[in-house]
Amino acid sequence: MQQPSPSRGRLCGASGEPKAKPDALLFAATLASDRSGNPARFSPPFAKYRSAQKGNFGHSKKLQRGRQLDPSRRSIESQEFDAALRHKIVGQEEGIRALVDLYQVFCAGMCPQGRPVGNLLFLGPTGSGKTRIVEAAAEILFGNPRAVIKVDCAEFQHSHEIAKLIGSPPGYLGHRETPPLITQEALAQYHTEKLKLSFLLFDEIEKASDALWQLLLGILDKATLTLGDNRRVDLSATMIFFTSNLGGGEITELMTGGMGFVQPADKREDKLDSNVERTATEAAKRKFSPEFMNRLDKVVVFHPLRPEQLEQILEIELGMVQQRVLETARGQFLFRVAPQAREYLLREGTDLKYGARHLKRAIERHIVYPLANLLATEQVRLGDMLCIDWDPSKGRLIFQKEGEVVVLPVAAPQPQVAAQAAAASNGSAAEIPCTAVAHEA
Hints:
By secondary structure, the chain is an alpha/beta fold. It is 39% helix and 15% strand. A five-stranded parallel beta sheet has the order 2-3-6-1-7, sandwiched between helices. Strands 8-9-10-11 form a four-stranded mixed beta sheet. A two-stranded antiparallel sheet has the order 4-5.
């Protein structure tokens, strides 16, 4: 008597009826080869499970069709990256969204085969945060804002200078003596076990020679670069960024009124933003070849900063100054900036042509330099609490010691803690960082 095969015994019960098919095999009925009219629909290994699928897949398919999915949901890692990026970058929603989208695609493993993770071109006036957003993303993901291979395109204005990027070819002077800037080791320098991603930044790409643009065509399309010694570099796990100030002069002319960041009453804000985007995009199309523009995944236009955005940047910059104070070896103290002093810094640091960099220079000139003098002359010591206010009679900032609190640092201060210490603007004492042990002197 013929014995039933072991495989039939596993799929059928004692009565010979088909058992419920395992969930791992339900996907077979959704394949194109399983559709009616296809002669190959009974091809192994799915043919022997055909009878078992008929009684179980119908109900499962109804449940799957009735369940609505949410493609706008993001993973926890992507949400954390988005939140951390918004703490560092102000007023550039489109740039943040473009970076987060690429990061989500990379985490999901849906990157295009044989191409970089993403090719982004950042346009906009100077001081709007184009380079800063890349450094901020590197700081969040790798813990170091310099975890970026940065190519200053002003150094590649002549075609022969490309040897500094890929190395000299055989037969030329300096072969094997000029180390290339872009190598596989340099790309993998900041890789971790969980995140094997690299950032490559071409800063001010409009200043480079045409030879560099031609070299970039193969990188953007095939994610490969051949060095001078014929080694190949794989950039399939790399985000490539380009920054450019093209159209900055025209954008500056569009912004009128007040200190340059206040919009005129006869221009709506949405209309002004669309004009800025159109001006920058048209300037890029006039400068770059269609082959180059066609290989970009997205062109992001950074808008000029507005007064409320400059106030947020002021808070961030003051927090970074407080962090620098807490990390100094000569003395560690806390300071707060009164509201009138903040208004003075905003007046001094607001300029249409120079963006947020002008505000940063004003903070260095009016806050950092006087604090350095106080430290060098030992007028402030470890644990002091300072108040920086505006004196209208003297027309300058004044520095007063409010109290003496001993601050003993135990661990490296976090940026958000330092920002909280510098953000006390209502006249109350600043909060002592949680990474320090404090007691009254």
